Amino acid sequence: MFSRPSLCGTVGKLCRCGTSATGITTVAAATVPAARHYHEVVGDIVCPSQVRGIDHIRDPRLNKGLAFTLEERQTLGIHGLQPARFKTQEEQLQLCKIAVNRYTEPLNKYLYLSDLYDRNERLFFRFLSENIEDLMPIVYTPTVGLACQRFGLIYRRPHGLFITYNDRGHIFDVMKNWPEPNVRAICVTDGERILGLGDLGACGMGIPVGKLALYTALAGIKPHQCLPILVDVGTNNIDLLEDPLYVGLRQKRVVGREYDDFIDEFMEAVVQRYGQNTLIQFEDFGNHNAFRFLDKYRNTYCTFNDDIQGTASVAVAGLYASKRITGKSFKDYTFLFAGAGEAAIGIADLTVKAMVQDGVPIEEAYNRIYMVDIDGLLTKSRKVGSLDGHKIHYAKDINPMTDLAEIVSTIKPSVLIGASAAAGIFTPEILRTMADNNERPVVFALSNPTSKAECTAEDAYKNTDARVIFSSGSPFPPVQVGDKTFYPGQGNNAYIFPGVGLGVICTGTHHIPDEMFLIAAQELANFVEPSDIERGSLYPPLSSIREVSMNIAVGVTKCAYDRGLASTYPEPQDKRKWLENQLYNFNYESSMPATWVWPRMPYIKTREESPLIAAIK
Ligand SMILES: O=C([O-])CC(=O)C(=O)O
Ligand SMILES: [Mg+2]
């Protein structure tokens, strides 16, 4: 992942290596032996003559393993450092498949992939992007949750930047240590609410790393343009504080004014280092902070909160698709949310927007949405203070109730959405009530990872005579009911954020309106085929998620120009083609300089000249 400084070989005389134009920078002399010059390989710009041959093997961004050609091996001076065999990238992909499948434990698969990432970046991303259905559950939800829980044990090399509270006043200096000068997208967490697993402090780094891996694998955003960040302000997780393997600051969370000032400084440092239009994706912050920061920064920075807006978008896409099965329109739906945190409120707010766009008056839209939090149904009779922020819009003038089964029987929702991180609260009884009250009940169990889902896919189908329209945040295996197999779709924000990210960074959008997430929802829903619905899924298969991401990026790009939010001019006419031209190349590129006279070792022949070498295939 990291590009390391390398020795250019110039000793005792002035080095004539260029700096800016080639993307090569000279590293501060203080750490460098006298009269020697070191260089960094940054971004995707490489000047092979100024990088030591061995660095082409050691640097995962340059390494191609056995795919280095004979010419490259000789030119780079790495001939003999590898076995004789030449492999194509395709052959290497086959090996990766065999290697990863040797492991049965998902965490071991995760570690294999993490090592591949550290060894050969292009191969890692091609492998991931071409095997999304198998590998997304490993590098992302649910296995990434386990990786975070075991972070202290499995930590090997940094894949992102750790900014601790001790760095306050110097965040910009820390950011300067990140070796990439052209970061366009940051995913940041403070680790307070990692998936539904709670406060994992610095171990939460796995989340931004996993999210940004999907930026590249699903939307083709170049890896050097992505920066995962963990802001470490401590943790309130006592187990971690007492765990000798914990790698973060061993202190309680900094809160209040100090915390806010710290995040303010972070936002300013991002802009100072990488520019005003750097995309900052907030991920897995605690509820109270997530909403505050979104409101505070959304109009002044290029930012969004994935748990509020990304999850909302994927859920609303599922609701659009569900209408094709129920034959109803939004005005006929009654919604009940179990949970009133980031995801639930985000989905409810965007659902209101979608209903209004469908012609439902706004008061009526709010009336149609009920919400339950840890204290029961949100009602107007609640104590002041327990209806903070956005919750107030969803409080109803009815008797308080605390039992979810009773609430479901009374409200008779047509749509039941779980975003509570309370595993199993959609009991068989509740699911049966949903089926009694609706010909096609809609049930989303969105909490992550799998262990936190409100019900399993199997429970949902089996307790509703398989009439349920189901989706979940984490993947579930297919469910067999009678002679029919259902393939539940994964209502995960991974369908949304990579495409939104691509559109936003290519257009240089100043800030991100909710409208973009509604557009993303519509693009995703439009992609759902009757055959997906037939299979029991409200979403297209994960294998088409790259196409979905591109469609979303095109929709976001149009919106950015229509709304005057873009800063990249002129406006491209063919937006899809323009976006495609900016994508990461998953295939190896030549490591040979463009104009190079091959100084081959005299006793070696080219492959064409030598049947012996041609035979080493
Ligand atoms: O990471 C995921 O799978 C979805 C998400 O944002 C969350 O659960 O916080
Ligand atoms: Mg999240």
From TrEMBL:
Residues engaged in binding (S)-malate: 193, 448, 492
Family matches, as Pfam families: malic, Malic_M
Residue stretches making up the Malic enzyme N-terminal domain: 117-298
Superkingdom assignment: Eukaryota
Record has Oxidoreductase as a keyword: yes
Single GO MF descriptor: metal ion binding
Keywords: Metal-binding, Oxidoreductase
BP GO terms, sorted: malate metabolic process
Active-site positions on this chain: 140 (proton donor), 211 (proton acceptor)
Annotated a divalent metal cation binding sites: 283-284, 307
InterPro entries in the cross-refs: Aminoacid_DH-like_N_sf, Malic_enzyme_CS, Malic_N_dom, Malic_N_dom_sf, Malic_NAD-bd, Malic_OxRdtase, NAD(P)-bd_dom_sf
The protein's required cofactors: Mn(2+); Mg(2+)
Keyword Metal-binding: yes
GO cellular component, one term: mitochondrion
Residue ranges of every copy of the Malic enzyme NAD-binding domain listed in the record: 308-561
CC cofactor note: Divalent metal cations. Prefers magnesium or manganese.
Record-linked CDD domains: NAD_bind_1_malic_enz
Family the UniProt entry places it in: Belongs to the malic enzymes family.
Identification of the protein by name: Malic enzyme
